Amino acid sequence: MKKRMMDILSFLFCSLLFWINIARAENVCSRPELGDLVQVKDLQRYFSAGVVLALSCAPGHTPYNGPRTIVCTNTGQWTKTKFTCKPVECSSPDAPVNGQMHYEDLLYQSVVNFTCDDGYILTGASSASCLIDGSWSVQEPQCKPVSCGPAPIPEFGMIIYDKIIRGNNIYYGTSGTYKCLAPLALFGEERAECRANGQWTETPQCQEVSCSPPENIENGVMSIPQKRDFEYTETIKYGCNGDYVLHGPLQIVCEKTGQWSEKPSCKAPCSVGIQFGRIMYKGKTLWMEDFKPNIVLHGETVSVYCLDKDRNCEYAFPTNCFDGLLSVPECFEEPSRSQVSSSNPTEMSQC
Fold it and tell me: Which domains are present in the chain?
């Protein structure tokens, strides 16, 4: 046993002397310093002249520049090389529809994080890593919309969705309109929407509404068969007596406030306040004595002929009837009866 130990120590000592002698030789190269990412197959400490080493890259990296081999020269130096390694680059992934991706770069071991927009839930991995072969560790996830379920329906009401709904999975962004069964009125938000938190907007209520019988308007009539309370959205029509003209809506509506909508009014007709002279009414030129009856309805226009003394001709100046008031233009000078020509108005000189 003792002899065997002595033999081993003798071998190791001889080996050490061998490598020391090699290291002292000028034509022997030490192990090259190539950086952490550059690799060689042989890991011995010393190489004799003429030895060629093939260079490669660590996993997840690719070579560029060259040459890709180095040679131990007789001077004990390795030949020069610009061989370097760069990380593998993965292709840019697609952001999920209705979502985003976040990353700093796309190199080996980089991580891409995925998120979804409000109202959408991530289905799949929330992150992916760039692998050695340039592929991603997982497939891109999906962003699926939040489901609210069917919208709550108010008592005596309904909802009309903006699009066709199939099944009970009603997703974020779906909207609709609430309506009440007649004659109930809707109180609250008329529009419904599935929100990002998976809840519907607040549900309105359907309530009864009535309006008291309205009063008649001055110089008018209204279509009430009997005096009673009226339900929501019921209408009453108005008209005017004689030559009065209805101004405003033709009917009023019982609103959800329990009040009637704005009433119309009856506007009075006008008369043209001159005795002699000519006027134009509804496209016809007339002498005042032929204008019978002397009535111009509210909103209508009548033109009075004025005299241009410098040019010795007449021109028509328009004026409007507004609720019984019709102003005679200042340019009009009423002639005396003796000055009034008996000739046809259309034959008179016009400017």
Answer: 23-87 (2.10.70.10), 99-145 (2.10.70.10), 157-207 (2.10.70.10), 210-267 (2.10.70.10), 278-347 (2.10.70.10)
